[in-house]
Amino acid sequence: MPGGPRLPEDVLARELATLPEWTRDADAIQRTWRFADFKTAMIFANGVAALAEKANHHPNITVHDYNQVTLRLWSHDAGGLSARDVDLARTINATL
Known about the structure:
Layout: H1 9-17, E1 23-25, E2 28-34, H2 38-55, E3 60-64, E4 68-73, H3 83-95
Antiparallel strand pairs: 1-2, 2-4, 3-4
């Protein structure tokens, strides 16, 4: 599988503990950012899109309430969360 196998629950719990503000949502992890304005939210969303394209792993990106962006990550091919999701979340946290 391109995304690798689904992470066992104990590994996922340990990994999630290292990702500030990311939370579990069923078979995904998600995080919401709040910005000063719509333009800044869109700049962030486009930055995430560039990182996702480079990683060939594409999150759901939701822009809402004009200044908030929520990202939701999971690996379809793994049927849930894989190391690929944790890696992209970590990259987003470190880069943007």
